[in-house]
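Minutes, project check-in
Item: structure for the 247-residue chain
Input as provided by the requester:
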Amino acid sequence: MSHEPNRADLHKDPKRVSGMFDEVAAAYDRTNDILSLGQDRLWRIAVRNAIDPRSGERILDLAAGTGASSVSLARSGAEVVAGDFSPGMIAEGRRRHGDIPNLSFVEADATALPFDDDEFDVVTISFGLRNVVDVDKALQEMRRVAKPGGRLLICEFSHPRSRAFGALYAFYNNRILPVVAKFVSSNAEAYDYLNESIRDWPAQRALMARIRNAGWTDVAYRDLTFGIVALHRAVKPARAAGSERDR
């Protein structure tokens, strides 16, 4: 009996999304490197530079996958928690990087994080927010677990502002990427969902508004690779003396 690959859709049922990532965990990083034409490495460097991790900080790296970005953060001396809601990704991350000091892997749902209030100096999520079933709840949860004055970094696919470049990008995603994915991915249909989720995702300023509505301040973004990806940043408001605990 043949096994039908798990394929998420825009309803983003958590079990289906998690199962889809379980299936691609072993080859996930190699596939992304090929399909992004190596740009994913530059995006990870941009995230690390924006975080500028320091020894002694606590950093929550959500949608961490196999921990490719988490490793770089941990090598700064920061204490890094790599969280992902795919057990397959967590298992692969522990297999590859379980011996790295200051790095731990935790199964974590972004809409119900298993952490106390005010735990982290930085909360970051790369290429995972658009897979969450309730984005606004996830943004609120990230604010809850960040310390007052703590920072948020979101790296996510976005929308090129140049019409000409946007057309070229759409051609690659719609015509080239699916063909290549059939040869390099263990679940090519997962990358059909990738295209759907990117098309459905809000543009840069719309995401800024959602971050702000979740209670974050100092919200800003900058484009990477001509707007294929955008790096959003924000700050959790510092609590005034005598004020009630943030919820």
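Outcome recorded: Residues 14-235 form a domain with the Rossmann fold fold (CATH 3.40.50.150).
No further action items on this chain.
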